[in-house]
């Protein structure tokens, strides 16, 4: 009985082996050029009707399948990388492939992506790419060459573009011609003045404006019957002379200071007066010659009348600020004159400032009692400007300060008011704030008066 069972088992095994060899022959026929070395792997699972083999494929002009960790079906004409596991599915009769054990151990996602990219190009695609490279290396066609313009033609076009770009000098000449034209409307002239005001902030442009006769046109515009033209002309004039010594001299020679003082002495709309004050302050700044003529032509008297007439405080603040700047400017020059080794230019400047008796004129024209009126304003900025001017005028005004009961009372009340504000600043964590500076100014003035 055992002998018959053994013979039956041997027959079954032999039949299975013959069937496996037949299937491998069929698979080899379907694979065309693929010569495979098959190794029969013993099926230890016992339940699957499949056999597992290890195949080493040669690399031909075949579609290479990239195996993964899962079994996948091989199509006819497909090859697999060496070391892959291939099995024959006895149920479907199809070959299946997956990675070998060593490949599963070391194969990473990066390797798979690299291999896929390498195997994704067919011979046809490679031939097409090589043909494209050769075409790109060919010289440009005639049509392409025609798209490039000769160098001489480009230079000629660039030169024409340069001719179309206006320089500042050309722009100002065009603007002045338009402003002086009888056909220009008031709106056009206002537009011209706006452009000129922008240009004259540059020192060279302001000087060029003078050489073109623009300064005389501005002075004529100050006498216009249209207050808008007066305002704009004063604005351009102030911007042109600001920090520009050459233009300041030209303006003085043209009689600009006298024209501006005349406008301040007559009733003008507030916008015009503000711009005229700006022009006067710009003309006097760092120009002792103009300051001396300002004093000799009754400039302080004109400003005092304007100061008294202003009830809002805006013009008062501008006037006081201008006077404070003039006092501080002369004081700084005088202090620098104490140093040894000054050059001739500075000595001449010091001599010119010494001829400007500004503080004496302020005392004689009643400014020692006028400036304290600005402390009545509710604006903190106005009060600050007044306190700084009072301190600057203290050397010639102390006697008037001490006899001015209104000033002394204002200082006491302002000190108490701002001390409370300082306490409020400290509560919110602001030390040495703006109100603290005002308290220091009040204290310094009180010390001088005592």
Automatic annotation (TrEMBL):
InterPro entries from the xrefs? Answer: ARM-like, ARM-type_fold, Hsp70_NEF-Inhibitors, Nucleotide_exch_fac_Fes1
List, for all copies, the residue spans of the domain called Nucleotide exchange factor Fes1. 137-208
The signal peptide, as residue positions, is 1-31
Note the coiled coil stretches, chain numbering: none
Subcellular compartments = Endoplasmic reticulum lumen
Could you tell me one molecular function GO term of this UniProt entry?
Answer: adenyl-nucleotide exchange factor activity
Task performed by this protein? Required for protein translocation and folding in the endoplasmic reticulum (ER). Functions as a nucleotide exchange factor for the ER lumenal chaperone HSPA5.
Q: Which PANTHER family match?
A: NUCLEOTIDE EXCHANGE FACTOR SIL1, PROTEIN FOLDING REGULATOR
What name does the UniProt record give this protein?
A: Nucleotide exchange factor SIL1
